């Protein structure tokens, strides 16, 4: 093999290494975003479960231990109002904004 052939093959090898490096970097960035989303969803799920447990415990406590009709109604209606307000707010989203690769 002559020197010119080795230079061409070396240049092609460098292009290949660069493209593999760039593809790996893109996939790593994509994987990092995915992990961030899963972590965010996990945190929200844990908060949801804890809030549900607290609300259910307080409702159970009011219904079983206090036994007052007015307190029972308040204990059942207030969390329902908060849940309804949250659902209405979620349904009121009028625009979905997505970003990809730093572009808006």
Describe this structure in words.
The protein is mostly helical and 104 residues long. Helix content is 84%, strand content 0%. It is built from two helices and no strands. α1 packs antiparallel against α2. The longest helix has 64 residues.
Largest sheet composition: none
> Which value, in Å, is the CA radius of gyration?
28 Å
Mean model confidence by pLDDT? 75
Name the poorly predicted regions: none
β-strand percent reads under 5%
Please state the structural category: mainly alpha
Helix content: over 70%
Number of strands: 0
Following the backbone from N to C, one meets helices and strands in this order, namely HH
Q: What's the overall geometry?
A: rod-shaped
Distance between the termini: 51 Å
Multimeric state of these chains? single chain
Descriptive key words:
single chain; 104 residues; mainly alpha; 2 helices
Q: Could you provide a short overview of the structure?
A:
With 104 residues, the chain is an all-alpha fold. 84% of the residues lie in helices and 0% in strands.
Secondary structure topology:
Blueprint: H1 3-66, H2 69-91
Helix pairs in contact: 1-2
């Amino acid at each position: 093999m002559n020197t010119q052939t080795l230079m061409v093959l070396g240049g092609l090898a460098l292009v290949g290494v660069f493209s593999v490096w760039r593809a790996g970097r893109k996939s790593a960035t994509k994987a990092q975003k995915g992990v961030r989303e899963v972590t965010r969803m996990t945190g929200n799920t844990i908060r949801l479960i804890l809030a549900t447990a607290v609300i259910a415990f307080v409702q159970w406590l009011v219904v079983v231990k206090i036994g007052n009709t007015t307190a029972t109604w308040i204990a059942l209606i207030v969390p329902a109002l908060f849940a309804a307000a949250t659902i209405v707010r979620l349904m009121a989203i009028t625009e979905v904004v997505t970003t990809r690769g730093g572009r808006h």
